[in-house]
Write a structure and sequence with these properties.
By secondary structure, the chain is of the alpha/beta class. 39% of the residues lie in helices and 12% in strands.
Amino acid sequence: MGDEDRGGQLPQRVPGAAAPGLPPAAEPERTEPERIVAEPGPRVQPEPRPQPGRPANAGPVAEDEVTEWLGPVGGSRPGTRSRPAPRLRPGQPGPASGGPAAPAPAGRFLALLAVLLVTAFAAGSLAVVAVRHFTRPLASGPANGPANSGASAALPRQEAAVRGEAAAWVDQQVSHGVIVSCDRVMYAALTAHGFPADHLLVLGPASPDPVHAAVVVETAAVRDLFGSSLAAAWAPAVLSSFGSGPAGITVRVIASHGAAAYQTALTAGLAARMTAGAALLKDRRITVPPLPGAQLTSGQVDSRLLLALAALARHQPVSIVQFGNIGSGASAGVPLRFADLAVTGQAAHLARAAYVRAALGYLSTVNPGFRPARTVTVVLPDGQPVLRVEFTAPSPLGASGS
């Protein structure tokens, strides 16, 4: 008789019973709450399960055993006990009988969880490597990398170059008989170029205004000490400037009695120099082109230079080519301290070398108050050779060299 003859209903399978013609399947292990609901009767505290070792003929590795192997990789907590193998009902074939063992849901969940943890760990490691790889170029970019390091290293080199240029200028253009104030680093640079150490005044945090010096070398360190008060109150006139920005250096004249007194003396000296320059133009033994002539009559020429030219003209003809100062950025009103003289010697009927020797010999014997600090032969950019008669800074404010 077929199934249709049995009331038209299919036979219902009892949970846990094997299908006809098949060996009974392993019953999935129930959790504690499931066991309480499924099994009627008084609740009995389950006995602790023994943890037998795996026999040698246990057959294929169960899924729970795979879970136990993957557990440490997935990050299980140290000290936790591995899950024991599921307990089979009597008569149910186990792995040793060769029958297929149905995987336990809890074991499948743990295996999946372990795989997910391993995958997440690997993905996290790749993410860390990727972050390190892609952020490394940013760390070595223009803002923080070699380009910026090169810029940072270039600033000290620039400061050293400007400091050396300023120190060489001070050694050549500033009188070694006056006091020059500066910071400690500039002190080392000046002495290295030959400026006498006993005529240098080192400025520091406890230093007062350097009113007892004649010149101050204003570096960034000196600006930090005195701020703008130095230029406004005690050193209003600039002799020369070097560099720019934080590395810039300015050489200034110090007004021992203050900026107002300095300006008063400068105005008085200007009037005296205008009178002396106009008198020099009237000397028939002196030849002056238009531009140098205008500088003489406007009082722009150093008073010591005026006196030296007047003394030389009494012995040799003088042909003035130009007046000027060495350096850049000097303040308006700072006197011009050198004169370039033609060395043709035609008026005296002397050869060039003989004229230079005669002029040098006489200028070396004049009054020390207006004796040139340096007299050398120079070739101008246009190729013309001249005899440069030069005085050092700072210039006196009066026409008589005082």
